[in-house]
Amino acid sequence: MYNMQHHDKLVGSRKRSEKRNSKRFLSDYRGVTAIEFALIAPVLFGIVLAILELGLSMLVEVVLDNAVAEAARQIRTGQVHLAQQNGEYNKTKFKNVILENGAGLLKAIEDKIFVDVEAFEDFGDIREYQPLVEDGAVVMEQNWDPGEASDVVIVQVVCAWPMITSTMVSLFGQAEGGSRILVATEIFRNEPF
């Protein structure tokens, strides 16, 4: 027959043993750092990746500004006008100058760079520009008119830089595929070449 008293002793002993083990387990701090890091790591890596991605897109924006300024200088000084008269220069060559000055970053997205060059008689004649993005697509006229001597020229280059992380796409994605629209504009009067 089963002895109830013996059973109570065993159950009580087991409960005390479990209580001691749980106290020992709860007071043991080995491995806590690894668990805490596992909890924090996804957020930390996400923030670091977002900072790197945003920094890269800002770097590309500065590179684009400098590349457009350098290419526009060739228009301002008459180099493009002279080369165009000789049949050695066109819109494609101008875009290639921008890409060459883009430190290799712009060549990766060559098909997502849009160039518009227009000439006017005076600064007051510059037209009001329309939005560059419509329904997620870049919609911009891509004119090519570097003008004559003393003309006012506006050079506008738009680049759809791809964003990778979902957070950056939701915050900065303005075009299809979550690309960030980067714009470089130069407005100047041509020299009297």
Tags for this model:
193 residues; two-stranded antiparallel sheet; 48% helix; three-stranded antiparallel sheet; 2 domains; alpha+beta
Structure report:
With 193 residues, the chain is an alpha+beta fold. It folds into 2 domains: 1-26; 56-189, no CATH class. It has helices spanning 4-27, 32-76, 79-85, 91-100, 166-172, and strands spanning 113-120, 133-134, 137-138, 152-162, 179-189. The strands form 2 sheets. The chain has a 3-stranded antiparallel sheet, covered by helices on one side. The chain has a two-stranded antiparallel sheet with strand order 2-3. Helix 2 crosses helix 4 (91-100). The termini are far apart. Pfam families: TadE. Keywords: Membrane, Transmembrane, Transmembrane helix.
Question: How is this fold's topology laid out?
Answer:
Elements: H1 4-27, H2 32-76, H3 79-85, H4 91-100, E1 113-120, E2 133-134, E3 137-138, E4 152-162, H5 166-172, E5 179-189
Antiparallel strand pairs: 1-4, 2-3, 4-5
Protein name: TadE-like protein
Keywords: Membrane, Transmembrane, Transmembrane helix
InterPro entries: TadE-like_dom (IPR012495)
